[in-house]
Write a structure and sequence with these properties.
The protein has 174 residues and is α+β, with helices and mostly antiparallel strands. The protein is built from three helices and nine strands, in the order ββαββαβββαββ.
Length: 174
């Protein structure tokens, strides 16, 4: 398949795979690929580069249907989730915050908090960066993801996010 980013053009040849259709319609809607941030220094978000299609949990990367829903930032961009389904995290008076995050990959959680955005860049920055937190319980073969957070980094000047590995020194799943 092939689609023009945000232009409404979609071309399919020799494929009748639902994943390809959803992926290409994602481009028509204006979404880029869901990549992975591959660091070169062993850190979480340090020096490195984007690994194309590297978000193996999102259909705009390497994710499979029906589990590979668009990630929270993409659904917010498409206006598929809105208040109160996503929130900016801000510190309370004691310097902490607490949310109950519901899964992004289920229609049973509509109208519940499904994405959290954390400002990474300095206050007042003209080119902000964000972390996005989601929860993907449909990946039952990945206990870390099923019971933990799905972490993304929206780099400065970018309209898309990269999956990040919060434990880069460990082997195994992202």
């Amino acid at each position: 398949g092939l689609a023009s980013l945000g232009a409404g053009d979609l071309w399919m040849q020799k494929s009748n795979d639902a994943k390809v259709y959803v992926h290409e319609f994602g481009h028509v809607y204006g979404l880029g690929h869901s990549n992975f941030w591959l660091t070169t220094d062993g850190s979480v978000v340090g020096a490195g580069s984007e690994k194309e299609y590297g978000d193996i949990y999102d259909v705009m990367g390497g994710g499979e249907l029906p589990r590979g829903h668009f990630h929270p930032q993409a659904k917010k961009r498409l206006l598929w989730i809105d208040d109160p389904q996503w929130q900016d995290a801000s510190l309370s008076g004691d310097g902490s915050w607490s949310f109950r995050l519901h899964r992004i990959d289920s229609s049973d959680t509509e109208q519940k908090l499904r994405g959290i955005r954390i400002i990474k860049s300095a206050a007042g920055s003209t080119d902000p960066e964000y972390y996005w937190i989601g929860y993907r319980a449909s990946y039952t073969d990945n206990m870390n993801l099923m019971k933990g957070a799905y972490l993304l980094w929206q780099r400065a000047g970018s309209e898309k996010c990269c999956l990040i590995d919060s434990t880069p020194a460990t082997a195994g799943e992202k």
